[in-house]
Description:
The chain is mainly alpha-helical. The chain has helices at 9-25, 29-39, 42-45, 50-56, 69-78, 82-98, 112-120, 128-139, and strands spanning 100-104, 107-111.
Amino acid sequence: MSIFKYYSYEEIMQEKENNWNNLFDDLPDDIKDYIYCNFLDYKSLVFLNKDNYKKYHKYLINYINPEHYLYYIKDIVENNLTFVFEQILDEMFLKWIKIKNIRLNNKTYNNMLKLIIEEFASCNDDNKILNMIENKYKFYNMKY
Length: 144
């Protein structure tokens, strides 16, 4: 019987990460802010908190392959990520209305929002995303 415990590489790396997170959490807020502002780019900042997401989410589109954009939106809707969807909807609503005749699964949709409603959001039991879309139509005085 050995007195030494053997650790896997994953266990060692997890322990290092936990130690780093604990150390970072103990830093004063002004030092954390300095690190955030001077050493992290917006691709990292966007996921730290809601305020940063609101500020930097528009840059994420540059990193999504255009061929996968529809699947990106589908995942957001199906996983009911309402905060994320709200940001995208605010930014893209008028653009989505203008995208005409979208084909998916042998169906043609009048615009991107109709596709989102009929294909993605209608399968979801929670109607928050449908309500967001409906409210956006009302905001712009458009027929839903």
